[in-house]
From TrEMBL:
The keyword Membrane applies. Belongs to the mesothelin family. The keyword Lipid metabolism does not apply. InterPro entries: Mesothelin, Stereocilin-rel. GO terms for cellular component: cell surface; membrane. Keywords: Cell adhesion, Glycoprotein, Membrane, Signal. It is found in: Membrane. This is MSLN protein. It comes from Anhinga anhinga (Anhinga). GO terms for biological process: cell-matrix adhesion.
């Protein structure tokens, strides 16, 4: 339905006012159209808020969105800044373990919104969290607030991380 709606919306050109449309609809618009207008950052900021699970994990469309987002945001390697992580939003759910490791804690907030993880991603999250080199600090220093911020990642924590968290 969203795919059909996207076709109707673009009959007279690509929409400029992205705030007027549901984020899930934007998943079906062409990112390259927005790259041409120079507003690809705005487009991906909206896409990052969409329910990415509308598209099947590993689908060509989802891969294309992530690839074009990385180009738009000029992310040449696996290190993603906190600002770009904010723009990518839920698109970080498709970044591989190398991105998670290289970006330190920059992706943790967005990763905590992901529905599922690949084994490589899980290991990378554990590695980053276990290092303590994040804005959240080492697990020994965490509070209830920290756990709330990372709530979506708690199922990934292994015994070595869990035992360090204060009661």
């Amino acid at each position: 339905q969203l795919h059909c709606l996207a076709k109707m919306v673009t009959l007279h050109g690509i929409p400029q006012d992205l705030d007027s449309y549901p984020e899930d609809l934007l998943l079906f618009l062409s990112p390259s159209d927005y790259a041409a207008t120079g507003s690809c950052r705005q487009y991906f900021a909206h896409v990052g808020k969409a329910n990415l699970d509308v598209l099947q994990r590993g689908s060509p469309r989802r891969k294309q969105l992530l690839a074009e987002a990385l180009v738009c945001l000029k992310i040449p390697g696996p290190q993603v800044s906190e600002e770009n992580a904010e723009i990518l939003g839920r698109l970080v759910c498709d970044l591989g373990g190398e991105y998670i490791r290289s970006s330190g804690g920059n992706l943790l907030k967005q990763l905590s919104q992901c529905e599922s993880f690949l084994p490589d991603q899980e290991e990378a999250v554990r590695s980053v969290i276990g290092s303590g080199n994040t804005t959240f600090g080492p697990p020994e220093a965490w509070s209830a607030f920290t756990l709330n911020e990372l709530s979506g990642l708690i199922p990934l924590f292994d015994h070595s991380i869990l035992q360090k968290i204060p009661k």
